[in-house]
Design brief:
The complex is a heterodimer of chains A (267) and B (273). Chain A is of the alpha+beta class and 267 residues long. Chain A contains 5 helices and 9 strands, in the order ββββαβαββαββαα. Chain A has a 5-stranded mixed beta sheet with strand order 1-2-3-5-4. By secondary structure, chain B is an alpha+beta fold. Chain B has one domain: GHMP Kinase, N-terminal domain (Ribosomal Protein S5, domain 2, 2-Layer Sandwich). Classes of the chains: A alpha+beta (267), B alpha+beta (273). Chains A and B meet through strand 1, strand 3, strand 4 and strand 5 of A and strand 3 and strand 6 of B. Chain A: It comes from Aldrovandia affinis. Chain A: Belongs to the RNase PH family. Chain A: One of its GO terms (biological process) is nuclear mRNA surveillance.
Chain lengths: 267, 273
């Protein structure tokens, strides 16, 4: 790793952040009307779009049906223009299949699948612009989309990456830091109980450092969960204002179905 | 493309509405739905645009790469189209499900741009026979609610308008070897003339009349692309198409230029708005 200094002598990173600082997070729920749930998130320059369909009847082969819980079906794909070098295929390569599997495992740990036996929940995520931390952006976007779809979860799932440079743990890596060598770890957390839904590390790290690195990632995840929570509450407020107006206009017709506020499940 | 099912009564209602030039959402037969266009939404592309037309949402990203010109046309660059029907739009597109529609859409785009008038490909030439710019135009379907062709063509046009290709300088050394230098200044770039880039206008015959920008519901009321047409209505439909296309083109260019003139003052909305 020549030339690029990931952590300056003054303790700042390449993009000017402090080691434990997250990138700016902006998110919106309910981006699309046709899907059951959708959300968009920006974490720095990484942009992800998640869409949820279901729970619905199992599509395709019946053999996939589970009699005691819902099947979670995930597909991860990247827009062909999302990376600096143009990608030839949006999905279907080894890396995206692996990512789809990780997402599936993460959400099987969080969604209360036993409430929907013999059904299927589709979670589709698309990276529109990639600048490191694709997995975490996908998980965070998908969490918001699942909440938007009104599917009950144990807790928010928040994901964040962390790296280890010069004995210092760095939270929320950008592309330059991810590709600059060194260890990086992706962690998905259920923040309330402090349970880890997924932990993945590819490179080598001394065992003594593992605790500090996980600790840094968990702190970052908790920070993210506050942001996601405020996004959900903001969205609920907007929706409830709208539906209240509707309630006045259509007070005569009792059959208007208002999507159940997800906060009911969370609190 | 959420699957729609229309009942017989609904079908009659829609068809009678079309007959009286009043459609279900209040439009006339030659009106488009509300269209939103935003350019420069993906910062790591050379040009990008997001278009929503009713519930149909399209994102186009253009990347310019240096390649070798085609042997038959040594002094021209070329365009490559790819349409990604992502599962985001509908679960049916999961896996390879969207490939067929994607190929159909990209083939249409190839046909539309396969003439000298659409875009001047000679501006994409760097050194004849050796180097040229290849524009990879990638279309992403995010949500489908009918009229994909028109929405995609508008989005491609907007993205081409937004495309900025860095200027290159060719220097020759003593042995005659050529070296390409890219300009360091991000503002030193080339723009494309999109004045003649076509907009596709799709017409849909519902009952005895034809409509522009049909929603999925209206498309389900017509033969849904499977039926046949008599020569007379084909002529009428081309005439309408021409008229509507001209009416669409002028305000589109105006909007694009207006957005451009705002410069840095423009607030980027993207998907957050």
């Amino acid at each position: 790793m020549a030339g690029l200094e990931l952590l300056s002598d003054q303790g700042y990173r390449v993009d000017g952040r402090k080691p434990s600082e997250l990138r700016k997070v902006q998110a919106r729920m309910g981006v699309f009307a046709q899907a059951d749930g959708s959300a968009y998130i920006e974490q720095g320059n990484t942009k992800a779009l998640a869409v949820v369909y279901g729970p619905h009847e199992v599509r395709g082969s019946r053999s996939r049906t589970l009699h005691d819980r819902a099947v979670i079906n995930c597909q991860y794909s990247m827009a062909t223009f999302s990376t600096a070098e143009r990608k030839r295929r949006p999905h279907g390569d080894r890396k995206s299949s692996e990512m789809s599997l990780h997402l599936k495992q993460t959400f099987e740990a969080a969604v209360l699948t036993q409430l929907y036996p013999r059904s299927q929940i589709d979670i589709y995520v698309k990276i529109l612009q990639s600048d490191g931390g694709n997995y975490s952006a996908c998980v965070n976007a998908a969490t918001l989309a699942v909440i938007d779809a009104g599917i009950p979860m144990r807790d928010y799932v928040c994901a964040c990456s962390a790296g280890f440079v010069e004995d210092t743990p760095l939270a929320d890596l950008c592309h330059a830091e991810e590709s600059g060598g060194g260890t990086s770890l992706a962690l998905a957390l259920l923040p309330r109980g402090g349970q880890i839904a997924l932990l993945q590390m590819d490179a080598r790290l001394h065992q003594d450092h593992l605790d500090t690195l996980i600790e840094a990632a968990m702190t970052a995840c908790k920070g993210l969960s506050d942001v996601l929570d405020s996004v959900v509450r903001q969205h609920l407020q907007e929706v409830s204002v709208l539906t209240r107006d509707l309630g006045v206009c259509f007070s005569a017709s009792p059959c208007i179905s208002v999507r159940k506020p997800p906060a009911l499940y969370l609190l | 493309m959420a699957t729609v099912q229309v009942s017989e009564a609904e079908k009659v209602y829609i068809m009678h509405g079309v007959r009286d030039d009043l459609r279900v959402d209040g439009r006339g037969c030659e009106d488009y739905r509300h269209m939103e266009i935003e350019t420069d939404v993906v910062s790591n592309t050379d040009g990008s645009a997001k278009v929503t037309l009713g519930h149909t949402a399209i994102l186009v990203g253009i990347k310019a790469e240096i390649g070798k010109p085609r042997p038959m046309v040594a002094d021209e660059g070329f365009l490559e189209f790819f349409v990604d029907c992502s599962a985001n739009a509908t679960p049916e597109f999961e896996g390879r499900g969207g490939d067929e529609l994607g190929t159909e859409l990209s083939n249409t785009l190839y046909k539309v741009f396969n003439n000298r008038n659409s875009i001047d490909l000679r501006t994409l030439c760097i050194s004849p026979g050796e180097h040229c710019w290849v524009l990879y135009i990638d279309v992403l379907l995010l949500q489908c609610d009918g009229n994909l062709f028109d929405a995609i063509s508008v989005a491609v046009k907007a993205a081409l308008f937004n495309t900025r290709i860095p200027k290159v300088h060719i220097s020759e050394d003593e042995e005659g070897g050529k070296e390409i230098e890219l300009s360091d200044d991000p503002y030193d770039c080339m723009r494309l003339n999109v004045e003649n880039v076509p907009c596709i206008v799709t017409l849909c015959k519902v009952g005895h009349r034809h409509v522009v920008d049909a929603t999925l519901l209206e498309k389900a009321c017509s033969e849904g692309g499977r039926g046949s047409l008599d020569p007379e209505s084909i002529f009428e439909m081309t005439e309408t198409g021409k008229r509507v296309g001209k009416a669409l083109h002028a305000p589109l260019m105006e909007v694009l230029q207006k957005e451009e003139s705002l410069g840095k003052k423009r607030q980027k909305v993207g998907f957050l708005g």
